[in-house]
Specification:
8-stranded antiparallel β-sheet, 35% helix
Length: 158
C-alpha cells in the first residue's frame, strides 16, 4: 500500500487542499482538508473520497524543475465526477508531492498505471469471450429463413 502527502491549489488560488493519497488493493483514496490560502484560518473538516480507477484516463508523475517540485496529475474521463473533487481544473487534478516522498509517489503512479492496464486487459478479455460465443452470421441466417423473405423469393420465382 502506498500513502503520500499531497497539496493542491483550489478556488483559483484562493484555497489550498492538504491531505493524503492512498493506493492499495486496486483502490485509490484521497483524504483531504481544505483551507483558505490567504490566512489559513478557515478550514473544512477532513473528508475521504474514493476514486474509481475506471474514471482515470491518465495518471502522470512529473518531477518538475530539476526534480525539485514533484507532482502527480490525474486526468479524469468524466467531467461530472471530476467536478465533485476539490482542486480539479477542468478534468485535470494536479497534486503537489513533498520532495522527500517523490520516490514513493513515482512508485505509486507506476502501480496505478499497472492496475489500470490490468483492468483494461481483463475488460478486453471479457469482451473477446463474450463476442466469440456469438455467431456473427446468425442474424443473416435468421433473416434469410424468416417467412417474409421466403414470400419475396416466391414472387421473384413466379
Amino acid at each position: 500500500m502506498y500513502s503520500i502527502s499531497i497539496k493542491a491549489s483550489t478556488h483559483q488560488g484562493w484555497g489550498e487542499l492538504r491531505g493524503m493519497l492512498h493506493f492499495g488493493d486496486g483502490v485509490l483514496r484521497m483524504q483531504h482538508k481544505a483551507s483558505d490560502a490567504v490566512l489559513g484560518l478557515l478550514t473544512s473538516r477532513a473528508k475521504e473520497q474514493e476514486i474509481n480507477l475506471d474514471l482515470l484516463s491518465r495518471v502522470d508523475y512529473l518531477s518538475g524543475f530539476l526534480g525539485l517540485f514533484p507532482r502527480i496529475e490525474l486526468q479524469f474521463s468524466d467531467f461530472v465526477v471530476a467536478s465533485t473533487l476539490p482542486g480539479v481544473n477542468g478534468t485535470t487534478m494536479t497534486l503537489s508531492v513533498c520532495w522527500r516522498e517523490r520516490l514513493e509517489a513515482r512508485e505509486m503512479v507506476e502501480s496505478l498505471e499497472a492496475a489500470r492496464a490490468l483492468r483494461r486487459t481483463m475488460a478486453l478479455e471479457g469482451d473477446i469471450n463474450r463476442l466469440s460465443r456469438v455467431d456473427p452470421l446468425a442474424g443473416l441466417r435468421d433473416a434469410a429463413l424468416s417467412p417474409a423473405s421466403s414470400k419475396s423469393e416466391r414472387k421473384l420465382s413466379a
